[in-house]
Amino acid sequence: MNIFAMETSCDETSAAVVSNGSNVKSVVISSQIKIHAKFFGVVPELASRAHVENVNQAIFQTLTQAGIDFDDFSKKIDAVAFTVGPGLAGALLVGAIAAKSIASVYKKPLIPINHLEGHLYSYFIESKFVNPPFLSVVISGGHTELIIVEDFGKYKVLGGTRDDAAGEAFDKAAKMLGLSYPGGPVIDKMAEKGNPKAVKFTRPYLKGSWDFSFSGIKTALLNYLKSNPVENEKKLNDVCASFRQAIVETIIFKAFEATRQFNLKQIVLGGGVSANSLMRKMFKDTGKKNKIKIFIPSPVYCTDNAAMIGCAAYLKQKKCGLNYSLAQLKSSPSLVLENW
Ligand code: KG4
Ligand code: ZN
Q: How far is the CA of 143 from the centre of ligand 1 (A)?
């Protein structure tokens, strides 16, 4: 089954053609980083406008790379999937209108996908499907979630972000340190050269809860910088390494605690922060020690992309078919994870 997928929930305009959930025929990801970098975060109105500007080209390029022209579309594509939420309202609407227009012109069924489910299943884009049950750790700019996937489309959400998500904490820390946006990749790079023990940031484990709270570490960094200005590159690298270590250790501790308590043997990562090099290494090393299998997408599929939406859509239609109500197809900025 060939699915044409669109993702426009935040600041990437992305389209993809995915065959049977795991064979990416083409994917185009048009980033808006340059537009938002000077504001150190995504400006919703600018994001919507940039999606409108980029969406046609993303669609044409994707189809061209997949060897499909508009005359072939009907023959070669079976369904159109798109992200319905959560995300920025205007941004979601651009992807929705593009997907709905294509689907109505070519009389194709539409498959609505929750952005979180895209991240949750993104490992499968390039690899065999991992059989549930597994613990899904979705760590991105908007989410830090621990979810037990009992079956495809059957979720038990253990906990999530109480304030700043992991990626948001990296982005805000980078701004405080005078680094560029997005902060996660920059801090990751500098941290590689620093000493993770140089600054002792407390780990917000929130014992007794599966939730995450990273706003405290961010404030601790702000207070530290007030009395310890970073005056050279070595010190900057040390602060980045210490900050990264605190975030990664907190997530690792809670994720492995969840596997113990719920007797899970597999962890699947997803979301932009799973591109973090220490996160990847520590998950793999801790997994080996604890005999837990760890599955992490390639960095390109950790951050937002439409291939993950095509992959999730394939799994969803296998279980739910191809008929969705108008309510299910409605864009919803605060959409929560729902069972199929
Ligand atoms: O999944 P994503 O592309 O968008 C959301 O759904 O939010 O994640 C973007 C987030 C940003 O906050 C970015 O700083 C973070 O992922 N990120 C990283 C790394 N690469 C991207 N954080 C830490 N280390 C990285 N290497
Ligand atoms: Zn995302």
A: 10
